[in-house]
Amino acid sequence: MNKNEKKAFGEEFSKNFKIGDIVEWSVWDSENTKWKINYGILIEIKNEVKSGRLVSVAKVLPLHEPATELEFFTWSLRSLSHPGAQDINISEKSFDS
Predict the structure, then answer these.
(1) pLDDT score for 77
(2) Which of 9, 23, 55, 65 has its C-alpha lying 20 to 30 A from 96's C-alpha?
(3) How many structural domains is the chain composed of?
(4) What pLDDT score does 93 carry?
(5) Tens place of pLDDT per residue across the chain (97 aa)
(6) Is residue 3 part of a domain?
(7) Is 91 within the bounds of a domain?
(8) How many CA atoms lie within 13 A of 48 on its CB side?
(9) Cβ-Cβ contacts under 8 Å for 29 (sequence gap 6 or more)
(10) Hey, which bits of 1-97 come out as E strands?
(11) What is the pLDDT of residue 83?
């Protein structure tokens, strides 16, 4: 990578995942006023331009019905295949760069 090239936002975090990993994500259930946890299998990770910014995006095949591919910002997923791999102290991260 050239010094002038910037990494995609979330690209470094995406290195904690491997295709085929079991992952989870949360969705707010406003009817029951609690977070609903969902599970799926990671099938692809790529960098895409979203709203003018290069970001890491993951495709997941949910384990629940309907089993239709979903797309997520990679940072929003947690790996169950590699527990602890995403344990990052955000307060120590610099978001200015």
Answers:
(1) 93
(2) 23
(3) 1
(4) 40
(5) 455 467 888 888 888 899 999 999 999 999 999 999 999 999 999 999 988 989 999 999 999 877 799 999 998 999 998 766 554 433 334 333 3
(6) no
(7) no
(8) 12
(9) 35, 36
(10) 22-29, 34-50, 53-62, 70-73, 78-79
(11) 65
Three-class SS of residue 69?
Answer: coil
Residue 55, domain member (yes or no): yes
70 is a domain residue:
yes
Amino acid 94: pLDDT: 39
Please give the Cα distance from 56 to 45 (Å, whole number): 7
Helix (H, G, I), strand (E, B) or coil at 76: helix
SS3 11: helix
Q: State which residues form the domain around 50.
A: 11-86
Hey, what are 28's tokens? 């707010």
pLDDT at position 97: 38
User: Before 66, cis peptide (omega within 30)?
Assistant: yes
The tally of CA atoms less than 13 A away on the side-chain side of residue 10 is 21
The size of the chain, in residues, is 97
Quick one: tokens of 16?
A: 């904690």
